[in-house]
Automatic annotation (TrEMBL):
Catalytic activity: 1,2-di-(9Z-octadecenoyl)-sn-glycero-3-cytidine-5'-diphosphate + 1D-myo-inositol 3-phosphate = 1,2-di-(9Z-octadecenoyl)-sn-glycero-3-phospho-(1D-myo-inositol-3-phosphate) + CMP + H(+); a CDP-1,2-diacyl-sn-glycerol + 1D-myo-inositol 3-phosphate = a 1,2-diacyl-sn-glycero-3-phospho-(1D-myo-inositol-3-phosphate) + CMP + H(+)
UniProt function note: Catalyzes the conjugation of the 1'-hydroxyl group of D-myo-inositol-3-phosphate (also named L-myo-inositol-1-phosphate) with a lipid tail of cytidine diphosphate diacylglycerol (CDP-DAG), forming phosphatidylinositol phosphate (PIP) and CMP. PIP is a precursor of phosphatidylinositol (PI) which is an essential lipid required for cell wall formation.
UniProt keyword Nucleotide-binding, yes or no: no
Top-level taxonomy: Bacteria, Bacillati, Actinomycetota, Actinomycetes, Streptosporangiales
Residue positions of the active site: D83 (proton acceptor)
Predominant location category: membrane
Binding-site residues for Mg(2+) 2, renumbered to this chain: D58, D79, D83
Free-text comment on the cofactor: Contains a di-nuclear catalytic Mg(2+) center.
Cellular compartments annotated: Cell membrane
Protein name in the entry: Phosphatidylinositol phosphate synthase
Record flagged with keyword Transmembrane helix: yes
Species per Swiss-Prot/TrEMBL record: Spinactinospora alkalitolerans
Transmembrane segments: 12-38, 44-64, 106-124, 168-184
């Protein structure tokens, strides 16, 4: 469904000479700049709107790649790497707010945990795939973590009570659970006996 919606936009960008990597770079720069400019100043709602716009723009890289038949392993690597930087910028900006004018040491620690655990979730999957096993499991993949985080931050910026703290605590718990799930899945898959070519 999402692909069908994005495809016409992707074709339009491709006709303008936009490449998938350009989309990825612009999306990442927008998320990083928005996160590190707005969030430390306490502009949580405006910052979330700006970040969301660039996150949605970044989703067009696949549509542009399909429109130009320009999919590549380098493009996939670049997209995955810059996604990590974008996620880190979101929680880094929020962390700066909490240790500054936000003045909430507890939520600063929770935000730091969300930042570190997000890297852990992604690293475990990448390392497992590097060892030749699939580890596409977990209750909170990147898209779920991003949605929970941005919704909580945006509503927090509108002074909706408890939603920011609740969202961050929920994200922290789900990230921790996902790490455990992926560690168990990877251990089980790496423990499976390898099949020989003459004994399928």
């Amino acid at each position: 469904m999402t692909a069908r919606v994005l495809q016409p936009v992707g074709r339009g960008l491709a006709r303008l000479g936009v490449t998938p990597n350009m989309v990825t770079l612009v999306g990442t720069v927008g998320v990083v700049a928005g996160s590190l400019f707005f969030y430390p100043r306490g502009d949580l709602y405006v910052g979330t709107v700006v970040i969301t716009v660039f996150v949605l723009f970044d989703m067009l890289d696949g549509a542009v790649a399909r429109a130009t038949d320009a999919s590549s392993r380098w493009g996939a690597f670049l997209d995955s790497t810059l996604d990590r930087l974008s996620d880190a910028a979101v929680f880094s900006g929020l962390l700066l707010w909490f240790i500054g004018d936000g003045d909430d040491e507890t939520l600063a620690w929770v935000t730091l945990f969300c930042l570190v655990s997000g890297f852990g979730v992604s690293y475990i999957k990448a390392r497992a795939e590097g060892l030749g096993v699939n580890c596409d499991v977990g209750v909170a993949e990147r898209s779920e973590r991003l949605v929970i985080g941005l919704v909580a931050i945006g509503l927090g910026g509108l002074d909706v009570p408890y939603v920011l703290a609740g969202g961050l605590w929920l994200l922290a718990v789900l990230s921790a659970v996902t790490i455990v799930q992926r560690l168990i899945e990877t251990r089980n898959r790496l423990g499976e006996p390898r099949q020989h070519a003459d004994n399928p």
